Amino acid sequence: MDDLIPLLGDIVHRLNSPLGAIRARIELIKNKKADLLERDEYLAKSLEAIERDAAKAFSIVAELRETYRISKTVEPTSVSLALATALSQADISTSIEVVTEIEHGLPNVLATKSLVDVFRNLIVNLEDVIESISKIWRG
Questions:
Q1: Are 137 and 103 contacting, i.e. CB atoms less than 8 angstroms apart?
Q2: CA gap 126, 132 in Å, rounded
Q3: What is the rounded radius of gyration, in angstroms, for the C-alpha atoms of the chain?
Q4: Given Cys at both, which of 49, 90, 113, 118 links 123, Cβ 3.0 to 4.6 Å?
Q5: 112: which residues sit within 8 A by CB, 6+ positions away?
Q6: 16-69 pLDDT, tens per residue?
Q7: What residues are paired with 109 via a beta bridge?
């Protein structure tokens, strides 16, 4: 089970942002298309169902985040090893070249076991940003 907790943390992190975006878009639709929603009962009921389902999903993600929060016990941890582990576990697009020059021999820091997850989440977020920028540059 302990091996699944970092994976679950990664899944929860990846679901949180899209669910927040869905909720924000629902509010935009309700505000910008209120007149259409008043005229179209089917559309209004469908949007209410989507909103209800998104709220349930958001609640489940929040519950999982709290239930499977990794230990807060700090211990001496190798930053170099944590970063190398995160990079080896990350599913980075082949269109992105990763150049690593990890300084070995850095002193340990006091951190929880989730330091690898922190690095992995940063890598995922960076990959999303790089892909977004790439799309802008390509037009």
A1: no
A2: 10
A3: 20
A4: 90
A5: 70, 71, 72, 73, 74, 75
A6: 888 888 999 999 999 999 999 999 999 999 999 999 999 999 888 888 877 666
A7: 77
Provide the 3-class DSSP secondary structure of residue 8: helix
What predicted TM-score, i.e. pTM, was given to this entire model? 0.49
- The b/e string for 74-87 (b: 16+ C-beta within 10 A; e otherwise) is eeebbbeebbbbbb
Q: Are 61 and 16 in contact (CB under 8 A)?
A: yes
Q: In this structure, what token pair is assigned to residue 64? A: 């999982």
- Lookup result for tokens 């340990």: 108
CA-to-CA dists, residue 82 to 88, 96, 113, 115, angstroms = 10, 21, 9, 6
